């Protein structure tokens, strides 16, 4: 009969062998999860990666667990066995009744009884977790702990190596774009991306979110939509979850004939889970998003001029005047710094400031765009003077996805202004992907491509005095 020591020795041998077998990260982690579960006599195991802000855990490999269990919802590292974040091993004797778990009801429905979680450490920092699951009560011995710590150490090295490879790949790509660029001196901490995506468009979408530093999770939750007796017969797993907006996003960019069935599923999901916020991004929506940065099919679309005027010059002026008056009233007795992001804001900013009756000064910023040379946003023009202790009013011509504003607000907040508010002329809410609070809004506009009064299409149309909808083929 094999002793526990013998099983653990064989288990570690297997784990080191798969770690060095040059498999993809997911396959390596699946194999490690399997070896751990088998060695410990557990039903299932998964390898979880912690995001850089230590908020969320994402599965990067698993064994023996149902899709429903793996995708039971975003896993909050501070709510689900939080002691593991501090480097401790957590042992759960009865999962359905344990308050340290975030989704005990799913544990119950999936008959998970015991859970053991161990941290994956890089030096003193926790970078992920190993979680083992059992359908029976599992007693956890000293030897189990020793094995688990050893397996976790190997797994942490696997993650570190994967991170290094991804980093090298990124550096290679950016050096190819700008050959004479200096190599970054240091690898960013925990920059590993956990996912192998199903489609190229998902990679692009994830890159776009990364560029603007918008937190995302990939397929963290499956929603059962139909049952056959006790069995789930229909399930829907949205592609992304954006925690800041508490919003799921489903990309339907591949086959357009899938849209009808996707729409049906999304409708059903909304009926069955009314608290869930989900957005379907069609191929057209996605192309629009990318066209903003000058590429993607719509970046090359033929434009036939302005199809319809949305707001005339007179309507704009009336609205700008009333915004100016409201701002002057709200800040009475104070002085403000108005900050605009170049270049679209120029018309609005110059009209707005002429209706501000309190003391004020202006400043401008500019940031690099997605699709450029960098992998993350860079400030290409920073403020001329300090805003520390000042009342700052950030002015935008349009808030769309909110990604530009989200990034800039975080940057401005780090300079410790006395207050920070936002005024935008246009708010195109249907396209929102980042959670930004708008204090003053000129007009809420529909999901149309608008130009004029500072807003451009490929650099043109900014000079139109009115705002019109661009007619595209
Ligand atoms: C526009 C606008 C905002 C941004 C909003 O700028 O001026 O800054 O888009 O979009 P978002 O909410 O999706 O981030 P753009 O990048 O088109 O440059 P421009 O101002 O030079 O026209």
Short description:
The protein has eleven helices and 21 strands. The protein has 473 residues and is α+β, with helices and mostly antiparallel strands. The chain has three domains: 2-165, Beta-Lactamase; 197-293, Endonuclease, Chain A (3-Layer(aba) Sandwich); 310-470, 3-Layer(aba) Sandwich (Rossmann fold), CATH 3.40.50.
Q: How is this structure best described in words?
A:
The protein is α+β, with helices and mostly antiparallel strands. The chain folds into 3 domains: 2-165, Beta-Lactamase (2-Layer Sandwich), CATH 3.30.450; 197-293, Endonuclease, Chain A (3-Layer(aba) Sandwich); 310-470, Rossmann fold. It contains 11 helices and 21 strands. The chain has helices at residues 4-19, 25-40, 67-70, 104-109, 142-177, 200-211, 258-272, 283-291, 313-330, 346-353, 403-413, and strands spanning 44-50, 56-63, 75-76, 90-92, 114-122, 125-134, 217-218, 223-228, 231-236, 240-242, 247-252, 277-282, 303-311, 336-341, 360-367, 379-381, 391-399, 419-427, 440-444, 450-451, 467-472. Strands 3-2-1-6-5-4 form a 6-stranded antiparallel β-sheet. It has a 6-stranded mixed β-sheet with strand order 16-15-14-17-18-19. It has a 4-stranded mixed β-sheet with strand order 7-10-11-12. The protein starts with a helix and ends with a strand. Mean pLDDT is 88; it is low at 185-190.
């Amino acid at each position: 009969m094999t002793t526990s020591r013998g099983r653990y020795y064989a288990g570690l041998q297997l784990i080191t062998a798969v770690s060095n077998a040059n498999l993809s990260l997911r396959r390596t982690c699946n194999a490690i999860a399997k070896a751990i579960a088998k060695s410990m006599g557990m039903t299932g195991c998964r390898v979880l990666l912690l995001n850089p802000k230590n908020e969320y855990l994402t599965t990067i490999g698993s064994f023996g667990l149902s899709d429903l269990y793996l995708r039971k919802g975003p896993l909050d590292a501070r709510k689900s066995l939080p002691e593991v974040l501090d480097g401790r091993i957590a042992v759960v004797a009865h999962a359905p009744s344990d308050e340290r778990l975030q989704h005990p009801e799913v544990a119950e429905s999936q008959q998970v009884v015991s859970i053991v979680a161990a941290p994956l450490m890089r030096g003193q920092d926790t970078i992920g977790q190993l979680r083992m699951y059992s359908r029976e009560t599992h007693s956890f011995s000293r030897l189990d702990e020793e094995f688990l710590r050893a397996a976790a150490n190997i797994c942490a090295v696997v993650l570190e190596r994967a991170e290094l490879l991804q980093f090298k790949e990124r550096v290679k790509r950016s050096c190819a774009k700008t050959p004479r660029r200096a190599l970054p001196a240091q690898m960013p901490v925990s920059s590993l991306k956990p996912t192998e995506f199903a489609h190229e468009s998902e990679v692009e979408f994830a890159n776009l979110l990364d560029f603007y530093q918008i937190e995302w999770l990939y397929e963290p939750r499956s929603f059962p939509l139909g049952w056959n007796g006790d069995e789930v017969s229909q399930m829907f797993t949205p592609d992304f979850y954006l925690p800041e907006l508490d919003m799921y996003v489903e990309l339907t960019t591949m086959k357009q004939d899938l849209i009808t069935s996707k729409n049906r599923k999304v409708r059903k999901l909304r009926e069955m889970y009314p608290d869930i916020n989900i957005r379907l991004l069609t191929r057209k929506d996605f192309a629009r998003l990318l066209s903003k940065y000058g590429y993607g099919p719509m970046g090359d679309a033929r434009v036939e001029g302005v199809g319809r005027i949305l707001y005339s010059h007179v309507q704009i002026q009336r609205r700008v005047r009333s915004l100016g008056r409201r701002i002057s009233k709200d800040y009475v007795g104070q002085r403000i710094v108005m900050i605009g992001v170049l270049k679209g804001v120029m018309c609005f900013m110059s009209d707005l400031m002429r209706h501000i009756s309190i003391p004020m000064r202006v400043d401008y910023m500019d940031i690099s765009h997605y699709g450029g040379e960098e992998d993350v946003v860079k400030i290409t023009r920073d403020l001329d003077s300090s805003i520390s202790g000042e009342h700052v009013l950030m002015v935008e011509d349009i808030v769309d996805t909110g990604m530009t504003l989200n990034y800039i607000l975080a940057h401005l907040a780090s300079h410790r202004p006395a207050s920070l508010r936002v005024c935008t002329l246009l708010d195109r809410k249907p396209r929102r992907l980042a959670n930004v609070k708008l204090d003053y809004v000129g007009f809420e506009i529909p999901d149309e491509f608008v130009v004029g009064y500072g807003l451009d299409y490929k650099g043109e149309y900014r000079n139109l005095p009115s705002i019109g909808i661009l007619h595209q083929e």
